[in-house]
Amino acid sequence: MQSNRGHSTNLVGVPTGLLASTAFNAFPVPLHIASACDANRSLFAMLSKAKDPETAAGMFEAYMGTMFDLDDQDRDGRGPARFRASSYLRLLRGWGYEANSPEGAVLKGWVESRFGLFPTFHKAPISDFSPPAWTTYVEEKMSSRFHSNAIQSQLDLLYEFCQWSLAHFHSVGRKHVTLYRGVNNFSEHMLVERVDRTHVVVRLNNLVSFTSERELAESFGDIILEVEAPTVKILFFNSLLPRHALKGEGEFVVIGGDYQAKALHY
Predict the structure, then answer these.
(1) Which one of 63, 152, 241, 255 has the minimum C-beta count within 10 Å?
(2) What is the DSSP string of 87-135?
(3) Domain map of the chain by residue range?
(4) How far is 70 from 148, CA to CA, in rounded Å?
């Protein structure tokens, strides 16, 4: 799997090999998940009337609550048991606790399904389709606990709303955002190339967390990876919604692949 970074097909219309490459990251093009916007035109018609990001976020939450019957659930993913396993908020909450959780596997599985990218790490490095690491990932991503209430469609809309919000309010006219991730070694992110003493190419997991604050990244490792992440690869960021489980760390949840990075020591 190290040479085969993903499926030959995906739902965003860009070949997976290109999508996973540093060339795409340098010159990104807009991405849309097939049918997600067309099937939810009323959401984007409503969003077009929003004058500020707070109003837009409220419209999105109201739409998701009505469409997927989430109104009885707290906005950070808590709520009655029958709602917890079927909400994008619940998955974000689980990811915030532990990226290698079952919720994390479902999110990585969504990236694999929509963008074609295989995960490279889930509890252990995944280098091929052999057990145990791949088997554990597949079992957890397919768990029936998380595959009710059209959860994949919920995540499709979360991505499309994130892209809409970046384009209209949070990152107008920008194709990249500078992000940081603290690591202690390259066991989770494969080192593809060491360009020089400070520049590397790393193969990031198919979904990975960054922060916009370097000081926060320093709490998570001795090496700080600094990347210019394409905005089209952002699934979620801390100010997208008013209340959620990832609020405390300035977190960005980013679709992976091969990234050029500065490996900075502090």
Answers:
(1) 152
(2) -HHHHHHHHHH-TTSHHHHHHHHHHHHHH-BPPSBSSSB--SS-TTHHH
(3) 16-265
(4) 12
